[in-house]
Write a structure and sequence with these properties.
Number of helices: 6
Protein name: Bacteriophage-related protein
Distance between the termini: 50 Å
Radius of gyration: 20 Å
Length: 127
């Protein structure tokens, strides 16, 4: 058995928060992100899905969001909200997908940024 004096304690200041409904461990504030940090896969998947839906609607495959929602088996409200991701500013999309830069807002909030000006989108998404 070890004595109390033989025990080594290591304290790592981490913060646990929820992002997109999942627990996420955040590093200390003074810790910079690594060069290989990847973007949230939920955001990437949602952006890809939104662009696919947008192309299908522009091609005339679906006339309304309701038809699209029925075809993909999701609620019309969900499809409508997620479809907005296809209309984000090019700079925001580039930073999210290619720049490996983490967004400061959740996927849900990101869906509502499409209504803002392109400059406001970048400011709010990457505060």
């Amino acid at each position: 058995m070890t004595n109390f004096n033989d025990t080594i304690r290591i304290l790592i200041p981490l913060k646990v928060c929820k992002k997109n409904g999942r627990a996420k461990i955040l590093p200390p504030a003074d810790h910079g992100p690594s060069a290989d940090q990847a973007q949230d896969p939920h955001i990437l998947r949602a952006i890809g899905r939104a662009w696919g839906w947008r192309r299908r609607m522009e091609a005339g495959e679906f006339a309304t969001i309701q038809e699209l929602a029925e075809a993909v088996g999701l609620a019309e409200r969900h499809v409508s909200r997620q479809l907005r991701l296809a209309y984000l500013a090019p700079e925001v999309l580039k930073r999210l997908t290619c720049g490996r830069e983490a967004s400061s807002v959740s996927l849900y909030d990101l869906c509502f940024l499409a209504g803002e000006t392109w400059q406001e989108q970048a400011e709010r998404a990457f505060r």
